[in-house]
TrEMBL record, chain A:
Its main location: membrane. One of its GO terms (molecular function) is pantothenate transmembrane transporter activity. The keyword Metal-binding does not apply. Belongs to the sodium:solute symporter (SSF) (TC 2.A.21) family. GO terms for cellular component: plasma membrane. It comes from marine sediment metagenome. This is Uncharacterized protein. It is a multi-pass membrane protein.
TrEMBL record, chain B:
It holds the Pfam family DUF997. InterPro entries: DUF997. Keywords: Membrane, Transmembrane, Transmembrane helix. This is DUF997 domain-containing protein. PROSITE patterns: PROKAR_LIPOPROTEIN. It comes from marine sediment metagenome. The chain crosses the membrane at residues 20-37, 49-69.
């Protein structure tokens, strides 16, 4: 057994221990408080965990594998495109964190769809969103498993199936056994491993390349466009702007980011979550993306650009440290999968099932949570067995689809009193139709080369406003619950 | 029953505005630096627009974010219960 495998197995063993330990905590909770504990960790998470949930949840294989892969392929232009990630925690918790925090406590919401249910009081919206969340997040989860398996396989020499099992089954253990409690404990360990791994990879790569100046000169000699912010005109400023919208302003539409808003303890934790999240994503993104570009000065002819991060981990640093980088990359992916697993499970087992079977007992709900969680992760692992080639496109497609469906109903729903369930349904449907058309038969809808989600989100907002204005206002009860001052008990 | 707006909602709106304004300023600065600074002369061995626009500017904005968030977003209670508010 080499040192890389040993360090990675040690990390995996810690995660399994966390799963078992958190299972004991969750099992001690009275059955009537089980859902609040399983889905929202008792709503008592501090700033650093909130920061890690948002940062780790939104920074996926797209950041840890495809990020350096894209900078390797497109030079510094893709570093610019990745720099809009840094403010994801600000742009999620800033706009809706306080409102969700207040309303979640008023209506005892513990899941993403509980908030929609309280705001729109519509069974149709719950059913549509549960379906869309599952449809978009399951393949997204599968791509994360594929990315993790490829990295583990490449770095340890183990086969794809064994690597897939190692990278994915551990997530299944701590998510199914410990729910959000297990996830939040694991994410603390993973946050440290990710940060240490990214910094080590960056320092190792820069040293190996002989410093910034030497690497820049070598890259310039290969192709001067690698030093250009547009890759010689390949990425227009408007395309850059549309991606800034997608991973910046529109991030409110990402369901797994809602976990942080539902679980933070108080506004002090919220504020720390915002700026700590920014610092973490800055460190991860700059270290990984810069390593990807500088890696081109070390090895200019890698056949698969996405393999640059694991290649560097294996070649520019000692074996044992390479194992830590490997654990860091896989940890970054696992945090995303865990957040998604909680969201899908809560949408199906807590919201959809209760809409269909309102007399569900707490014991049945508990069983349903674990069975759904296990099934979702198993399906995602099953899809990962197909080994899809272009995971970055699936990731971008899923993010765009989720934002096109939910951005308007979430953001306007939290601040505009006239927004109603008719507006929300029309907005979700319009966003989905425009997004589907732009991705298939009418590519002209990608205005000025923008990402298809751009027009879909803008149109869905307009439709939300128009339909809400011409249909009845929401009930006084909804208005009081979301924006009214309630009598103190 | 007459509707009285919860004063915390005003703070939530301000926080929303603050977040989007802050990101918009960042977006303008980073895109301005990236498209107008040019590649040479190199700075710290990196293309000029990368060193300033993609390393120094983000670090400054992230560090300033700590101050902006702690200074401009007040601590507010999240529950409607008076005792809980005091504990927040």
């Amino acid at each position: 057994m080499n040192w890389a495998i040993f360090s990675f197995l040690a990390y995996t063993a810690i995660l399994i221990a966390i799963g078992i330990w958190s299972y004991r905590i969750v099992e001690k909770v009275p059955i009537e408080k089980y859902e609040k504990e399983f889905y929202a960790a008792g709503r008592g998470l501090g700033g650093i965990v909130v920061a890690l949930i948002i940062a780790g949840g939104l920074a996926s294989a797209g950041t840890f594998i495809a990020g350096p892969g894209m900078t390797y392929a497109y030079g510094y232009s893709w570093v610019l495109l990745n720099n809009f990630n840094f403010f994801s925690s600000l742009l999620f918790l800033g706009p809706i964190g306080i409102v969700v925090g207040i309303v979640a406590r008023r209506v005892n919401a513990v899941t993403y769809l509980d908030i929609f249910k309280a705001r729109y009081q519509s069974k149709a919206i719950i059913v549509i969103l549960a379906f869309l969340v599952t449809v978009f997040l399951l393949p997204y989860m599968a791509t994360q498993f594929v990315g993790a398996a490829r990295v583990i396989s490449q770095m340890t020499g183990m086969g794809y199936l064994v690597s897939l099992a190692l990278g994915s089954l551990v997530v299944l253990v701590y998510c199914v056994l410990g729910g959000m409690r297990g996830t939040s404990l694991a994410i603390l360990i993973q946050g440290v491993v990710i940060t240490v791994g990214c910094i080590m990879l960056f320092i190792g790569t820069v040293n190996y390349a002989g410093g910034f100046k030497k690497s820049t000169e070598i890259i310039a000699a290969q192709n001067i466009n690698f030093l250009s912010p547009t890759m010689g005109g390949e990425f227009s400023p408007f395309f850059t702007f549309s991606l800034a919208c997608m991973i910046g302003y529109f991030v409110v539409g990402m369901p797994h980011a809602m976990l942080a808003a539902l679980t933070y303890k108080n506004t002090r934790a919220l504020k720390r979550g915002i700026w700590m999240g920014g610092i973490l994503v800055l460190i991860w993104t700059i270290c990984l993306c810069m390593s990807g570009v500088i890696g081109r000065a070390i090895i200019p002819n890698l056949a698969v650009p996405d393999e640059i991060a694991p290649w560097l981990a294996m070649h520019v640093m000692p074996e044992a440290l390479g194992g830590i980088v490997l654990a860091g990359i896989v940890a970054g992916i696992q945090t995303t999968v865990a957040a998604m697993a909680i969201i899908i499970t809560s949408s199906i087992a807590k919201n959809l099932l209760k809409e269909l079977k309102p007399d569900l007992s707490p014991r049945e709900a508990k069983l349903a949570s674990r069975l759904t969680m296990g099934s979702c992760l198993t399906i995602a692992i099953g899809i990962a067995l197909l080994q899809p080639e272009l995971i970055q496109w699936i990731i971008l497609f899923s993010i765009g689809g989720l934002e096109a469906a939910t951005f308007g109903p979430i953001l306007l729903g939290m601040f505009w009193k006239k927004g109603n369930h008719w507006g929300a349904i029309a907005s979700i449907c319009t966003g989905m139709i425009i997004y589907a058309l732009a991705n298939t038969i009418i590519p002209q809808l990608r205005l000025w080369g923008a990402h298809p989600s751009f027009l879909a989100v803008i149109t869905s907002i307009i439709v939300y406003v128009i339909v809400s204005l011409v249909t009845p206002k929401p009930s006084d009860e909804i208005v009081r619950t979301f924006w009214g001052k309630l009598k103190k008990t | 029953m007459k509707f009285i707006e919860d004063p915390r909602i005003k703070i939530a709106r301000k926080t929303f505005a603050l977040s989007w304004i802050y990101f918009t300023i960042y977006l303008l600065v980073i895109m301005g630096c990236s498209y107008f600074l040019g590649i040479k002369p190199y700075l710290m061995g990196l293309p000029r627009w990368v060193a300033i626009g993609n390393i120094l500017v983000p670090i400054v904005f992230i560090l300033a974010l700590v101050f902006v968030i702690e200074k401009f977003i007040p601590d507010v209670p999240l529950t409607d219960d008076e005792d809980s508010e005091n504990k927040e």
